[in-house]
Amino acid sequence: MRFHPDIPAGTLHRLTIESEMLADNRLGDAATREIIVYIPAGHSGEDLPLLVDLVGYTSGGPAHVNWKNFGENVPERVDRLIHEGAMPPVAVAFPDCFTRLGGNQYIDSLSMGPWATWLTTEMLEAVESTFGCGGPGKRGVFGKSSGGYGSIVHAMLHADVWSAAACHSGDMAFELCYLPEMPSALRAIARKGSVEAFVTDFEKGPKYPGGAFHDLMTFAMAATYDPDPDPSVFCGIRLPVDSETCELDQDRWDAWLKWDPVHMADHHTDALKSLKGLWIDCGTVDQYNLVYGARRLTRKLEAAGVDHVYEEFDDNHSSIDYRMDRSLPFLAKALS
Known about the structure:
By secondary structure, the protein is α/β, with parallel strands linked by helices.
């Protein structure tokens, strides 16, 4: 049952890409990937702006088109916003970027794979050549949490591809959101004997302790930001702390910080200034402390003269899809 059965519904199309660049990754993940593409009612996709949805950790793009109880999935939300006149018509792509380690930060990694390159080349080429949407000046990227991180980093590193971006509660200020998880990750390794034993036991199921997802996320971040180049190291995972004392290994941690948007902003303000639209928001009681990173980032952007919208809202990190009612019209209007 659709949440709004009385308004026109867009159509969903499935594309499948067999990717050479994603093959032979160290995680052993499949190189065949699905992209679901939303085209609004009454349109073929031709000449429409294209928005790309980068989902949060533990999810994959296709999950955002699934039926949702007591609410809207993303296509239904876009149907309503277009129907209400809140935003012009857009195409939306939902790429499957899920990995063995539970998610994606959407950057190129020796361990995780060349995800930024895939998103900005093969993925876009498949969608745009099929539907005639997007193209230079008409592409936007948005996401929450890990997806918000991917969106703001793509805005910094790939402003030649994306012309607008929205970051909802994105990972930043790594010392506040990631370092507090390190003791739990070390205890998980101690219980299982190794990272590999932890991951393989997690994969066996049939269910997982709630905290295990946080530990898996920490290992995914390690494989993303500072993968060990030694092919014998399981999935390239090495932590930036001492395994006995949890003391910080400054060299390893510096490698992580190079990917922190708060630090990256110092070097990419010109790219951010070139965007047609930049949206950043975060809940005031975000349980991962991300609001403090968002405040740090937006202060830097203000000081550098980067035009952007920053909003805080009275909520935490969970179940905040309603914030897309603000960001998606902003992106669509910037690109139209």
